[in-house]
Design a protein that fits this description.
about 10% strand, eight-stranded parallel sheet, 12 strands, alpha/beta, TIM Barrel, two-stranded antiparallel sheet, 18 helices
Amino acid sequence: MTQEERKQRREQETRNAATVLIGISCIVAAVVLGIVLLLAVFLKKDDKKPVNSNTEATTATETETEEIETETETEEPVIDPQTQQAIATVSGMTLEQKVAQMFIITPDALTGVNGATVTGNTSKNAYEKYPVGGLIYMSKNLTGTEQTKDMLSKMEEFAKEKTGLSLFMGVDEESGALSRIASNRAFGVAELGKASEIGAMGDAAKAYELGSTIGNYLYDLGFNMDFAPVADVLTNSENVFLKDRSFGSDSGNVSNMVLSMLQGLEENNIYGVVKHFPGHGSTKADSHDGLATCEKNLEEMKQEELVPFQNAINNGADFIMVGHITVPNITGSTLPSSMSEYMITEVLRNQMGFDGVVITDAMNMKAITNQYDSAEAAITAINAGADIILMPADFKAAYEGVIEAVKSGTISEETINSAVVRIVKAKQAM
């Protein structure tokens, strides 16, 4: 092979080697690029993966929870400003202060003075210890206009100073025989006739005049509550409890009279207390002396006895007094209505729609004291749905018994709070 041929061969081999090298380089570059692309795809997918298998579920749950909470917040009832104010007031009270608000007692029971007629240091010191929700005045506490004004105004000053709340200043002023003021000549108030006589006229304007006249002189004396009107329908001619205190035996007429008297009272800044739920009209006995029983069932009572109460509720009654009437054909027991959860919570509140203040009849009546001690009666009534205990036979025992019942869990503090919110709301509305 010549030198020229060897030269050409070397050049050809060099070109072949370069071609192979370029090919290998391209292959390597392609492999590297492929690997880079695969890594990029993998890393992109990895970025989308949850940190752990529960992340998606947790996120979804949180979102659903937020949606549920939003829906729940939307569905919550709107609380009116008056109720909000009452709730705020009650939240700043101690248990002892709240429980005290749930009692209306006589000035005698508060001070230990029989026939108390003045408000002084004894009253102030007693109220400092027992800041009750209200006082009810008997004939022996009321001797004349100036004495009554002075006694009530000073008591109101003590209450405002101690609690920031007014007192319920109450009295039994129905008309006729049960009138603490009109029956005392020292007040110079003309007697207004019996409820039975006014009812017999069938003129609701007369009942309005009765309420307006009573309201006017009670407000002037310093009262803000009247334990009237009587809403009992007198269906039993042998009834000794009501006699002339009822507007009559026709439920529709009684209802009209009750509403008109209430209007007259309220237009003079006096709270009326509609009584005695569920109705004493068909009973024979006087609950002052023992048990008084109504044998009717609930449907029968809805046709007569409950009509005035239902109409009062429909027209915005603020207070209803529950009597010590047993209704065995409704409750299946001889438990007085004033202590019956079925009668107060189920019938009065749930079925009849009453959202105001429930007051028991006087708890010193024998219908109660013959069977229960003061603490037991108060605890049972409060658990039944009563907001205010009126005149327990032994106030201090009842008061302390209720406090201990809350501490032991026999009465829930929520029950106490609900009652006191209703009480405070009514006071703030005054």
